[in-house]
Amino acid sequence: MLLVGFGEIGDKSQIFVISQSSIQGALPAFLGAISAFTLIFLLTAIFGQQLIKRIPKDKLLKGVSIIFIILVTYQIFFGILSYGIL
Fold first, then answer.
1. Are 33 and 17 in contact (CB under 8 A)?
2. Considering just the CA atoms, what is the radius of gyration of the chain in Å?
3. For the chain, which terminus, N or C, has the lower number of CB atoms within 10 Å?
4. How many Å apart are CA 86 and CA 79, to the nearest integer?
């Protein structure tokens, strides 16, 4: 859990909340961030619910798995290239 916390440091949303809290104060920035995340997660849940009605669960999971593997491979490959390791 601590590792995940350290991994989130410098996340774009955290940087945005820090900048907004310096302008508007901590409470409005916090409430705005909570509202935005709630809306995003609600829309994502609704989208997922509608998607599972149209695509069989096993095919959806296979498709998502393939997309995940492609994206991870892309990130690893181009991450290594960008650091000049290869």
1. yes
2. 18
3. N
4. 10
The residue written with tokens 């508007």 in the block is 24
Contact assessment for residue 30 and residue 38, using Cβ atoms and an 8 Å cutoff: no
Which residue has tokens 């490959």? 77
**Residues in contact with 16: Cβ distance below 8 Å, sequence separation at least 6, in sequence order:** 33
Which amino acid is present at 72?
V
How confident is the model at residue 54, as a pLDDT? 93
- In order along its 86 residues, the chain shows pLDDT tens digits of 565 566 666 678 888 888 999 999 999 999 999 999 999 999 999 998 998 999 999 999 999 999 999 998 988 887 766 666 65
Residue recorded with tokens 């909570």: 34
